[in-house]
Structures are given as structure tokens and as C-alpha cells.
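The instructor's notes for this session suggest beginning with a concrete chain rather than abstract definitions. Hand out the sequence below and ask the class to guess, before any prediction is shown, which regions might be ordered.
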Amino acid sequence: MHSAPPILKPMQTPPIFPDSQQLGSYARGGRIGQLCWAVLRSDQSLLMLPVLSFAAFCMLMLVFGGAGLLLITSMGNTPLAGLIATLLMVGAYLGITFISTFFGAAVIGAATLRLSGKPGTASDGLRLAWKRVGLLLGWAVIQTSGGVLFRWGPVSRLIYTRWLGSLMVGLGWTVSITFIIPILLFEDYGIRGSFHRSALIIRQRWGDNLTSNVSVGVPILLLAVFGFAVSLLLAFLAQPLLAIVVALLTIGAALTCNAALNGIYRAALFQYATQGIVAAHLNFTPKDMAAAFKPARGSR
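After discussion, reveal the predicted structure:
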């Protein structure tokens, strides 16, 4: 394991925050979403990654949903049944997190090769993710336990942030972990070191007190809202089972595609932040990269 992160290479351009850009955050997100979708479609095999992720999600829901249904019918409303149901919920949460993490890593791995001008395929991405499956599982466990601990109150949050380190202070959880997956894939820092490395890259490249500024999957999330609306209509028409199926399929498909697009953008950002390279051959621009974050409200 490295004891300290290497010095970052100079960027081609300094960060340009949104006030000095012509495109707003939603317009920029739409443009970047189109570019990421073009990368995803550049090789038909890459489209298999969100499909496989969604299939794994459906299988997980069938297993845990079936187990929960069996528990309700066989044990009823007892304390033991409540305990088992809680364990099932935690297991499902962990499973969903790992599926998202593993296939997200596969997308980032394949996209990184593509952004570098190499023929990255779905199998290449899966191979890269499988080589680091232990670290990815460990990170999924941390994300799952972190989600629980952060709901327990200030004491548990203090313990958690102390373990991860002080670099998160001034950045926040979501911004701090932006690059942890590509670091786990391509560098050798372990989980805690990767978290520190990710936060340090953000701080050195974009500064402190930041918030995310670009959402590449807004149209896909609108599709999820549409699917949810259709499911509500079906429920109103006394078709509850069909409504549940439509809601799960639509929302699951939208979320997996959204994760794939964000993975591609994250790979492009990581290349820009660590090497100062913009994938101009795929029509990305330095402003697309610099617009990823903006100063948080009240930090100027």
C-alpha cells in the first residue's frame, strides 16, 4: 500500500465554476448525459452492464421478497419474525449496494479504457471489477453500515468520520467518495486510503465547501417518475400486483441506467483530475469536467 498519494499532474485548465459558464447545471447535465450515453452505445456489449446489473437486482428482490413473504405466512407477527425481517432488510440493502458497486466499477473500468482510446468492452470492465471484488465488497459493507450509523446520531457519526479521517470535513460524504471506485480499481490504497485519496483529489482540484453541480441522468429519472405514475394508475384500477411489477421494473431499469451514465462521467472526471486529460475525441470539454462541482451555498 502507498503511504502517501502521488503529486497530481497539472490540469490543462483551472476549474471554472458555473458562474463563468454559459450553460446552466441542467443544460450541462443534459449535454454530458448525451455524451455518456454515446460512450455506452459505442460498443453494444457495454449496454449489457446495466442489463446485468438490473437482472441481478431483480433476482435479489425475488430472493429476499420471497423470503419475507414466507416469513410473514409462516411466523406471523412475532418478535423472532421481526428480528429475522430486520436481518433480511439489512441483507437486501447490502446486496443492492454491492450490485450497484460491482457493476458501477465494471462500467468505470470499461469507460476508462474507452476514454483512453482503448477498446474497452463489458468483459474488460467485469474482469477489472472481479480482480478487486474483495475491496468492492468491503466498500459496499462500509456504505451499508455507514447508512445505518449516520442515522443513529452524532456519536456514531463522530466515530465513523474519525475512522475515515478529517479530509471529509468541508467536503461532505457524497463529494468525498466521488473517486473511490476508480481508485479501488486502478490504485493500491485499500479502502480507507482510497477514501483519503478521493477527498484529497477533490480538495486539490476543486477546493473546499463544494456540492455536486451536474446530474447526467435527469431524463432517465424522469422515466422512473413516469413508471411510478403508471403504477399508481394501475393500482387505482384495482391491479395492485401489476402496479408493483411495473413500478419495480421501470424504477430499477432507470436507476441502473442512471448509475451507468454516472459511472462513465466519473471515469472521465477521474482522468481529468489525476492526469489533466480531457477525452476530447469523445467531445468532452474542460468546462464539462470543471462544472462537476460548485461552491456550496454560503461558502463564497
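Then share the key points. The CA atoms of residues 178 and 248 lie 27 Å apart. DSSP finds twelve helices and two strands in the chain.
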